[in-house]
């Protein structure tokens, strides 16, 4: 019988754990035979000693198999999934799901709610009247098979070991470990049944991984996990130095996603959706060349096919499809205020993290799980990096349902901006890891 303390000491001393040892530890922790204090010691040992590629893949597989596993065998379409490491104004999932469905791949997506300065897709979709994300496992799989696309909230029955471990990582200062981050992310993707995966690993002021080298290392580890566990996996390193698109907040991001599905979205958001979508079509085998995939996706945006697929997705999950043509039925915030420029010049800084924190002050985000949020609160940006501005010109507009929240949020938002020479143009996709 393997003893937990022997596994802990082996990792503490820098040795590699076998697949059997990792499985025994995760299974013991999941069923309660290994207490939190031993799991905390093991996490700290991993934090300091790291894990090699084989160990990380074994940990991912063990976490995935700790609960329900979805299987889409026998489908005539490849089942794909996309994961973002979290950012500000990131509404790409709302656009990619119908866009990819229109292109002919099946998308099985599990998403979470927002926490801190980053938003959550499930919160955004809850702005659409009637839209259900609390699907059962059976309903979710049936929708993927029947309509080619479905999205649901993260199920507690899937990867329960990861949920238990993350709660400990949060209170033991072991969150910032690449093997632990990578295995946590990929275990959910593996358990959700995706055969091809594209990872959007963000870097910059508004990202979890602010340093580009760290983001690239995380991406490499996750791609290696996917390869080892039989999932075709690619990663894009993308910029999060400023918010994505022109909106931040739940309701207002849904509006921008619908604009983008009409082919009228902001350039940076449209570009990232085309890049991620093309990568998914290539990794799924539907297209062999990125350029051909982009051309197809652009056509689907401009000819109305993507928007029609959005109608089908909304209808299939119980939502009111009238929002596509009449988005005002989602509601209108009661109060608003405009933030004006304090200088003349070019914007050379727009700190995404500060913008995200400002939306939390407006009520659009959570400080901790379980907090209620104001779905109508948010920020519309009128100027982005490199734009010229004059003193007194509008920079952004803030929205909230509680008037007293506007002033403190505006006071914080103004600190996100910097003025000077225009920055060098930077591609939103910084690197590909395949």
Itemize the secondary structure elements and their pairings.
Blueprint: H1 4-12, H2 19-30, H3 36-49, H4 53-64, E1 79-84, H5 92-103, E2 106-111, H6 121-125, H7 137-147, E3 149-153, H8 160-171, H9 178-191, E4 196-203, H10 212-228, E5 232-239, E6 247-248, H11 250-261, H12 267-283, H13 290-302, H14 305-316, E7 335-340, E8 345-350, H15 352-362, E9 378-381, E10 388-389, E11 394-400, H16 406-413, E12 417-420, E13 429-433
Parallel strand pairs: 1-2, 1-4, 2-3, 4-5
Antiparallel strand pairs: 5-13, 6-9, 7-11, 8-10, 8-12, 9-11
Helix pairs in contact: 1-3, 2-4, 4-9, 4-10, 5-11, 5-12, 5-13, 5-14, 9-10, 12-13, 15-16
Question: Which tags fit this structure?
Answer:
434 residues; alpha/beta; Transferase, Pyrimidine Nucleoside Phosphorylase, Chain A, domain 3; Pyrimidine Nucleoside Phosphorylase, Chain A, domain 2; Aldehyde Oxidoreductase, domain 3; 3 domains; six-stranded mixed beta sheet; four-stranded antiparallel beta sheet; 16 helices; 44% helix
Q: Could you characterize what this model shows?
A:
With 434 residues, this protein is of the alpha/beta class. It has 3 domains: 4-50, Transferase, Pyrimidine Nucleoside Phosphorylase, Chain A, domain 3, CATH 1.20.970; 79-324, 3-Layer(aba) Sandwich (Pyrimidine Nucleoside Phosphorylase, Chain A, domain 2); 332-420, Aldehyde Oxidoreductase, domain 3 (Alpha-Beta Complex), CATH 3.90.1170.30. The protein is built from 16 helices and 13 strands. Strands 3-2-1-4-5-13 form a 6-stranded mixed beta sheet, with helices on both faces. Strand 1 (79-84), helix 5 and strand 2 form a beta-alpha-beta unit. The longest helix is centred in the middle third of the chain and has 17 residues, at 212-228. It is globular, with a radius of gyration of 22 Å. The mean pLDDT is 93.
